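Holo model, heme C. Inputs:
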Amino acid sequence: MRHVVAAVALAAGLMAGAVGQEVQTGAQNGGQQTTYQNMTPEQRAQATREFLGLGAAPDKAAAARGAPLFQQNCAFCHGPQARGATGPNLITSGEVLDDDHGEHLVAFLKKGRPEKGMPAYAAMSDEQLCDIAEFLHLQVEEVANRGTYKVLNILVGDAANGRAYVEAHCMACHTEETFAHIASKFRAPDQLQRGWIWPARGADERLAITATVKSPEGATVTGRVTQVSDFRITVVDSAGRTHAIDREEEVAVEMKDPLAPHQQMIMTLGNDDMHNVTAYLETLK
Ligand code: HEC
Ligand code: HEC
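Output:
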């Protein structure tokens, strides 16, 4: 199933308006189509799911099993309700929306995207990962069916406090220039927030994660990391040659992430600080 990533956020707003008024669903009632107002809560939930293309209803028992697993393993980066923290919001994630009962997510989670800061969960069982997937689907469901979800409810901070925070915590590494007109580089405050919390690595060579890999014989290879797992690392050296190296015990790998200090800085950021900084940066058009 294919979904537009922002569908939940956008369509949830629509559900509250258009669907509440007149959009009809397939649900039949004595030969007549049932309108949204006449539906039972279960019918509404189903209608919303169909409208948004959310696929199968989440399995609540599995989601309840997945909740503590999510809190232990994922909440730190994705927030307790998966709405994003230092890691992206998973409620609008295509990886989540495109999944039913873990059919894609389990494989995704086993591999992760280590080169982008998303760990691999190779050691977790399929059952555990399915439960986590179900927990995520339930979060999507709760957001979608509340019909009031707003992505942009982000400018709740205090710009003056945000400015003070930036002066105290950001200028060790940045200059005024980093932030000049920063708000005009992003289409919306949520993107601005994501942009400053997770500066995009993109194709920027300066920001690439690099590694030095040393074999037991003493040979070293240094280059840009294109893939990494517990078992294997692939680097591209400055001459453009690709080296895929099995990570046997005696192989030493030293990785360098130019954004690592940034990520540490983010870890110390409170919720209020985050909102204040976004509110301040939003004034820099
Ligand atoms: C150390 C921080 C961290 C932890 C812990 C973490 N993630 Fe992530 N996750 C990330 C980052 C960063 C990304 C974005 C990677 C990228 O840019 O492609 C991400 C991406 C994702 C995505 C894909 C989002 C998308 O649409 O591209 C999913 C799904 C996901 N994480 C689920 C999980 C789950 C489930 C767990 C726990 C089992 C977890 N993550 C643990 C940091 C983390
Ligand atoms: C320990 C150093 C460090 C601190 C502290 C730090 N940053 Fe960064 N930041 C970086 C590095 C390194 C980059 C990537 C290189 C670059 O774009 O300058 C970066 C990139 C960025 C970018 C993207 C810039 C671009 O041109 O794309 C933004 C925005 C940003 N940081 C905002 C902040 C804010 C806001 C704070 C304070 C709350 C902060 N940073 C604190 C090191 C830091």
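Residues 1-151 form a domain with the Cytochrome Bc1 Complex; Chain D, domain 2 fold (CATH 1.10.760.10). The first strand starts at residue 28 and ends at 29.
Archived with the compound record.
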